[in-house]
Amino acid sequence: MRFGLFCLMSVHDNPGGVGGVIRDAERLVQMADEIGFETAWFAEHHFSNYSISVSPLMMGARFSGLTKQIRMGTGVIVLPLYHPMRVAQEIALLDQMTEGRIAIGIGSGYQPYEFNRYGQDVARKTDIFLEYWCVLEQALTTGEVEFDGEFVQIPKTFLTARPRQGMPDLYLTAADPRVLKRFDRHKPVSFATAGAAGSPKLYGLYDNLCNAWKAAEMDSPMAFAPQQYIHVTDSREQALKAAEHARRVARGVVLLRDPDLELEGSHLVSRPVPGEVPLEETAQNIICGDAHHVAEQIVADVRRMDPVHYSTFFNFGDMPIEMAAGSLERFGKEVIPLVEKEVGPLDAFGTQPALAKAG
Q1: Less packed terminus of the chain by CB within 10 Å, N or C?
Q2: Which of 156, 151, 112 is nearest to 260 (CA)?
Q3: How many domains does one find in the chain?
Q4: pLDDT tens-place values along the chain, 359 residues long
Q5: Distance (Å, whole) CA 310 – CA 271
Q6: What CA–CA distance (Å, rounded) separates 316 from 237?
Q7: At what angle do helices 56-64 and 17-35 cross, to 10 degrees?
């Protein structure tokens, strides 16, 4: 098991605006590279300040040149919003540019507002996703595509660039057994987050995914990668401030499911959403506290879910960069050693099928 760093790149009150958000992400990814994180994950969202990362592959191309060893991860490519031949070429090119230093997270999306503006039907997202994947798989594994489907038709075409080592590592956000089985031959990793709801909800998602893997009758062993909001602080005041930034993101997740978004320009109009909990409870749900508390929570997650990868989210809700960077620095210096002291080498985790743990 290795750690990852998730970059959503929201814009709220960053003093540098869009450019400031980019510079903040650059700083954190370079820090994660120095700490020894495995992957920097870049989101994909469109047409709102929820995220300026409209192309995780473009972000990977930029950030790979600023780092030495950390992989560039797409977290995730919303496949129905692309032409599959275009994204196949860009994945192969990024793989070549980084000398294989990539991981491909891929999903079907969930935001009607985005789908409408790309001319796609969100109700058919899974059908589109599976058809586009057929094209992508051909392109990345053979370098040759010929396809006649419902959503896309492609005459026989050859691609010059292909991934250096075959199919890159694949991370899936889908829980549909039909989708999981389609990816079985590539030994995918299920990628999930409960957002600001934290571990209690995340464990339920994990159990559901275990059941989905069973239902899909997967040949490859269960592999899971959770994502958690992290903030290392000794200050209760700062913990509540972190919770406030987490709530910004949580509201955005709910509001973006509405096809009739309330926007001021490109900015979401933030308001309380159904089921919203007090800040104190949010601070308890996310992994937020001193180094020992954060380490204890991660140890509990590792023992409960046996992950192959553990993605961390530090700069949520356009948090002031000094808060996020200070937290990440302490994570590397204090939290990781505490986790390893408790559970031993992290490479020992994520190596066994975890299906028996599902409740």
Answers
A1: C
A2: 112
A3: 1
A4: 999 999 999 999 999 999 999 999 999 999 999 999 999 999 999 999 999 999 999 999 999 999 999 999 999 999 999 999 999 999 999 999 999 999 999 999 999 999 999 999 999 999 999 999 999 999 999 999 999 999 999 999 999 999 999 999 999 999 999 999 999 999 999 999 999 999 999 999 999 999 999 999 999 999 999 999 999 999 999 999 999 999 999 999 999 999 889 999 999 999 999 999 999 999 999 999 999 999 999 999 999 999 999 999 999 999 999 999 999 999 999 999 999 999 998 888 876 444 433 33
A5: 31
A6: 17
A7: 60
Q: Is the distance from CB of 226 to CB of 297 less than 8 angstroms? A: no
Task: Label residue 331 exposed, middle or buried (CB < 10 Å: 0-12, 13-18, 19+).
Answer: buried
pTM beyond cutoff 0.85: yes
Query: What residue numbers bound the domain in which 179 lies?
Result: 2-357
Whether 52 contacts 84, CB under 8 Å:
no
User: The domain spanning residue 181 has which CATH number?
Assistant: 3.20.20.30
Using alpha carbons, list the distances in angstroms from residue 267 to 251, 252, 262, 284, 285.
13, 10, 9, 28, 26
